[in-house]
Amino acid sequence: QVQLVESGGGLVQAGGSLRLSCAASLFTFSRRAMGWYRQAPGKQRELVAIIASSGITNYADSVKGRFTISRDNAKNTVYLQMNSLKPEDTAIYYCHADGSGIWNDYWGQGTQVTVSS
Length: 117
Known about the structure:
Layout lengths: L3 E4 L2 E4 L4 E7 L9 E6 L6 E6 L5 E3 L7 E6 L4 E6 L8 E7 L8 E2 L3 E6 L1
Parallel strand pairs: 2-11
Antiparallel strand pairs: 1-3, 3-8, 4-5, 4-9, 5-6, 7-8, 9-10, 9-11
């Protein structure tokens, strides 16, 4: 059974840092784009960052320069390093495995990130 298990969320003060991890039980992991999304209360889920199988990355404008997505294909894990956190970064963060129209897409269960002012 496919699982995406996120960890690393928590409560942090503004200006602080957190590192999220997503361990995926996917034999196709290295061939997939992996992404981090977030959903704040009362808002739609939005893309935060994505990393292609090639390693090319893309970020939402709101996190550019503060967040870094990376992957370790040997560990089937994708990371999101979040620095200079702001209260508006408060949300549930979800890991996503993109199927690219070839395989099924998968979502993790989410991890809460709360940034206090």
